[in-house]
Amino acid sequence: MAPAKAHVLPDQLAANLKVWFVGTAAGPRSAAERAYYAHPGNRFWRAVHEAGITPRQFAPH
Predict the structure, then answer these.
(1) Most buried by CB count within 10 Å: which residue of 13, 20, 27, 61?
(2) What total number of domains does the chain contain?
(3) Contact 33/43 with Cβ under 8 angstroms?
(4) Distance between CA atoms of residues 59 and 38, nearest Å
(5) Shortest CA distance to 37 belongs to which of 45, 17, 14?
(6) Which of 31, 36, 33 is nearest to 6 (CA)?
(7) pLDDT tens figures, 16-27
(8) pLDDT digits 0-9 by tens, 3-18
(9) Does residue 10 fall inside a structural domain?
(10) Is 5 within 8 Å of 26 (Cβ atoms)?
(11) Residue 52 above 90 pLDDT?
């Protein structure tokens, strides 16, 4: 079996950030859309809301 292809997106860093999210290679949906955590079912959106980082649960776009 061939190894899975790693999907790597460019870093999205800016000056004066208060929080960084560091993850592994993007999944197929995120790679296709060229956007991190693009799949609507990705647990990232729920986790950042439940952690109190966002005022509501956001959708990928």
Answers:
(1) 27
(2) 1
(3) no
(4) 9
(5) 45
(6) 31
(7) 998 888 877 788
(8) 556 678 888 889 999 8
(9) no
(10) no
(11) yes
